[in-house]
Design goal:
With about 140 residues, this protein is of the alpha/beta class. The protein has 4 helices and 5 strands. About 35% of the residues lie in helices and about 20% in strands. It has a 5-stranded parallel β-sheet with strand order 2-1-3-4-5, with helices on both faces. α3 runs parallel beside α4.
């Protein structure tokens, strides 16, 4: 019997996250998801209890979380960039499943917007950590 595929979606409220969840469900995956309504925040990613989540043999973690409410570059960097780096860094290396970061065509180090520059920073980190980046546009 084939082992069931468990998928964790971090940041489940965006339309992209919902579409990925629907796609994964159509393939028979079991979805675990966290978002703001579960008390998850990129400001405090270390509060994630990976010991409970990763005992369930999660196959992949999609990271679609991004706080669009940040109004300054500093706030966005501290919330989004540091938050996602901290989130991934808190996953024990020996239990780290595949990580897929949902990014944007706006990701560019030369972008005029801090949104684009910060997405590019997170993309670089995810790739260096062995993850995959998906740019949507």
């Amino acid at each position: 019997m084939e082992k069931e595929r468990l998928v964790l979606m971090v940041g489940k409220s965006s339309s992209v996250a919902r579409d990925i969840i629907l796609f994964e469900r159509s393939k028979g995956s079991v979805i675990l998801s966290v978002g703001r309504d579960d008390g998850f925040s990129l400001n405090q990613p270390a509060k994630m209890d990976w010991s409970k989540i990763l005992t369930k043999d999660v196959s992949v973690i999609y990271i679609a979380a991004w706080d669009q409410a940040c109004s300054t570059a500093e706030e966005s960097y501290n919330t989004n960039v540091k938050g996602i780096v901290s989130l991934v860094d808190t996953i024990p290396g020996d239990k780290r499943p595949n990580i897929i970061f949902i990014s944007s065509m706006s990701a560019d180090f030369c972008s005029m917007s801090f949104y684009g520059r910060h997405k590019a920073l997170v993309e670089t980190y995810i790739i260096e950590a062995g993850g995959i980046v998906v740019r949507l546009g």
